[in-house]
C-alpha cells in the first residue's frame, strides 16, 4: 500500500499527451486551446460611434449646425464635417472625417429651420477609436486555457474560424461484476444496478474526456480479458471498476498483467478507495477503480480528473474553500488518508454528512464537497479550519 501523495505523483509522471486537432471555433466550448490566437484586425477597425446621435466638431458645439447626411451602421460616410456642420449617425457607424465628437440624440433638438442645436450641458466624445482595444497582430487568447463563451466571441471577432485544441482523451469504461444489471432493468435477487459506469462516463465528460462505454464484464476471466484488450487498443485511458478487491473473483489485476499492463500500484492508503490500481500499457493508461460507486467517484475526482486534464495540457485546479468545522469529527482508524463528504451549513461552516460508507451513493448528490483527513489524524475539532474541495 502506498501513500496517496505517492500514487498521485506516479500517475502524474505517467501523463501521455493526447496531441491536438483543428476544429470549428463554434464547437470549441470547454476544449483546451493549444495555439496563440492573434487578431487579424484592429479593434475597433475604425473610429466608431458608440451612441445614436450627431457627429460634430466639438468646437462648434454652441452653434446651430447644418445636417449634411445620415450614416447608418454598415455604411461609409461620404461627407466631411466642416465648420458648423454635422451628420446624423447611428451606433456602430464610422465617424465621418472632420468630426471629433458624437452628441447623443437625447442631448439635441432639431430646430424648425432643420438645423441642429445642442441642449445638454456636457458631452463625452462617444467615439470608440480605431485599435483602442486591440491592434492587428496582437495576441488575444493564450494557449492552455479552457475555452469559454467569451473566448468564442473573441475568436469570432478576429475571424479565427478553425482552432487548434487538445484532442479529448478517449476514456474507455468497463464495469466488472456478475451481480450487475443495467439501469433500465429490474435487478433480481442478489443483483444491483450498474451505477458506476454511468457516473464514470459523466465524470469523464465533465473532465473534458470522450467517454466510451464498454458494458458490463461478468466475473469471468476470458470475458474480462477480451473486453479489456479491445478497450486498451481503442482508448487513451481505460477505467475498469470492480473486481480489484481481495475476493476470490477479483481477478482484474491478474487479467491486467496478462493483457500486458504494467501495474505501478495496486493499493493506496486512502479511504475510501484502497484497492485503486494503476498501470501503463503500450499506448493507454489504465485505472482499476473500486467497485463501490462512492469510492470510484472520489478516486476519479482526486487522481483521474487531474490526469485527464494534464493529458490535454490543462492545469486544472479544483475549487477549494477554507471553512471552520460545525462540530467535532472523529474516526477510529487512521492508517489511511480519509475523504469525508461535507455540506456547508447556513452559517458558513463545514459539516460531515450522514454517510454509511462507500456504497452510500445517495450521500453524494447533496454534499457540497469533500474534506480530507491525513493519515495519522483521528479528529478534527469543532471550529477548526478545513479545506473543502467542491465536488
Ligand atoms: P468489487 O470491487 O467488485 O469487490 O465491488 C465492491 C462493491 O461494489 C460490491 O458491493 C459491488 O456489488 C459494488 N459494485 C461493483 N461494481 C459496481 C457498479 N458498476 N455499480 C454499482 N456497484 C458496483
Ligand atoms: Mg466484483
Describe the structure.
By secondary structure, the protein is α+β, with helices and mostly antiparallel strands. It folds into four domains: 4-17 and 168-311, MoaB/Mog-like domain (Molybdenum Cofactor Biosythetic Enzyme, Chain A); 22-43 and 134-166, Molybdopterin biosynthesis moea protein, domain 2 (Alpha-Beta Complex); 48-128, Molybdopterin biosynthesis moea protein, domain 3 (Molybdopterin biosynthesis moeA protein, domain 3, Beta Complex), CATH 2.170.190; 320-390, Beta-clip (Beta Barrel). Helices cover 18% and strands 29% of the residues. It has helices at 4-12, 149-157, 196-206, 221-234, 252-258, 293-311, and strands spanning 20-24, 37-38, 48-49, 53-56, 66-71, 85-89, 101-104, 108-110, 116-118, 127-128, 139-141, 162-166, 170-176, 180-181, 192-193, 210-217, 237-241, 262-265, 270-271, 277-280, 285-289, 320-324, 329-330, 337-344, 350-352, 369-373, 379-380, 385-390. The strands form nine sheets. A six-stranded mixed beta sheet has the order 16-13-17-21-20-18, sandwiched between helices. Strands 19, 22, 24, 25, 26 and 28 form a six-stranded mixed beta sheet that branches. Strand 20 and strand 21 form a beta hairpin. Helix 3 runs parallel beside helix 6 (293-311). The chain is elongated and about 100 Å long. The mean pLDDT is 96. It binds adenosine monophosphate and magnesium ion. Adenosine monophosphate (AMP) binds at residues 175, 177, 179-180, 192, 194-197, 241-245, 247, 250, 290-293, 359. Residues 175, 177, 179-180, 192, 194-197, 241-245, 247, 250, 290-293, 359 line the site of adenosine monophosphate.
